[in-house]
Description:
Blueprint: H1 6-9, E1 17-30, E2 33-40, E3 43-50, H2 56-64, E4 70-79, E5 87-98, H3 111-116, H4 118-121, H5 125-147, E6 151-152, E7 158-159, E8 171-174, E9 177-181, H6 186-196, E10 198-206, E11 219-228, H7 232-253, H8 255-261, H9 265-269, E12 276-279, H10 280-289, H11 302-308, E13 316-319, E14 341-346, E15 351-358, H12 363-373, H13 381-388, E16 394-400, H14 401-408
Parallel strand pairs: 3-5, 6-10, 12-13
Antiparallel strand pairs: 1-2, 1-4, 2-3, 4-5, 7-9, 8-9, 10-11, 11-16, 13-14, 14-15, 15-16
Helix pairs in contact: 5-7, 5-8, 5-14
Bound molecules: 5'-O-[N-(L-asparaginyl)sulfamoyl]adenosine (NSS).
Amino acid sequence: MEFEKIKNALKKKEGERTKIRGWIYRKRKSGKIIFVVIRDSTGIIQVIIEKNKVTEKEFADAKKALIESSVEVEGIIHEDERAPGGREIHATAFNVVGFAEEFPITEYQSVEFLLDNRHLWLRSRKMTETMKLKAYMLRFIREWFDENDFWEVTPSVITMNAAEGGATVFSFDYFGQEAYLSQTAQMYLEALIFSLERVWSLTPSFRAEKSRTRRHLIEYWHLEAEEAWVRNEENMKLQEEMISYVCQNIAKKCKEQLEFVGRNPEDLMVIEPPFKRIKYRDAIKILQEKGFDIQWGDDFGAPHERALVEGEDKPIFITNFPVESKAFYMKIAPDGKTVECADMLAPEGYGEIIGGSEREEDIKSMIERLKKEGANIENYEWYFDLRRYGSVPHSGFGLGMERLLCWIAKLEHIRDATPFPRLLRRAYP
Ligand code: NSS
């Protein structure tokens, strides 16, 4: 008989045979019966091991095996309402593949302890279901890009351009030259639109953020797109369509996972275009009316973003930020004071999930702004070439996969949106 997944064993009828393998999730003993709950990647199932139904060695091993030991089980399905999933297995064979030492993680552990033991904590069901949701999100995003004529490309993450500002860049010695870990693939994607027109990429981005928040990782998975012939408004349309596509598919196809993390699928089903657009200038007014001490030119913090989405059940865009507050590559609007950009804020106070803009085509304007940032202009010569040889209006955006997952899976902290979080004082394990 072949091994099957626990999910399938749970669909079998009374008296049918099954063979599964996995890890001991829970265990208790009562006289001559041992109850173990086994987990695999698809679920959990209870197994009953009775003394005279398996060999003596098998029974002794089952008795000895601690939580997280890996095992193979053969047996007969028995329907029982009290068991998780309504079925249990009465073992006819029980083989321990790898005995576990005493598992360090017990029920109540500090956050720090769980982070120290992240390589083991990843086995928890909450982490497992969250990682599945992330994989689904990526799957649906890929689908959406395919259906919308985008090419996936693979830009470098070693770069000489700190496109998102020198303050948060990781620099290192690249054979005698100063190079950086990429903060964004944007500039490379811009180069690629001149042949492929619509491109997207998924790369790690690095930000040496000195602030400790629930929304910042040092290394995160950055999903970015760039589109030729597209202006800011159409760029927003693409973003709201993509986010709606992902939310609705997650709502329809990931019910089990959503239930586990406590997200009502209905919350995601209502996500559909259009999303509200609010100009930065009006956002400032709204915040002032809500009692915030905030002026034109100030950046939004988490409390501001939360106040702006109050009462919204869909994400919103904040557009046209002041020129000084945004990166050198954003196109200056006809008013001369703002840029053609949009930040997408998730509902429920999860904050900014996407930053996007139309791109500046005027080289002089970019040089002026780069100089103010103290950037080394020479390193941007190649980028200015893109404007010199057949420039076109173009736009793009960047989505933090972990930020999106925080919202969709209702996570309290972004560290749980990635298996091995890189935080201010943590790069281990
Ligand atoms: O800095 S962004 O707002 N924009 C860019 O990097 C553009 N160059 C993207 C582009 O147009 N191609 O970052 C984009 C998104 C932002 O909205 C967040 O969702 C996410 O990247 N982000 C982060 N996620 C986790 N941790 C940190 N530190 C972080 N910084 C940005």
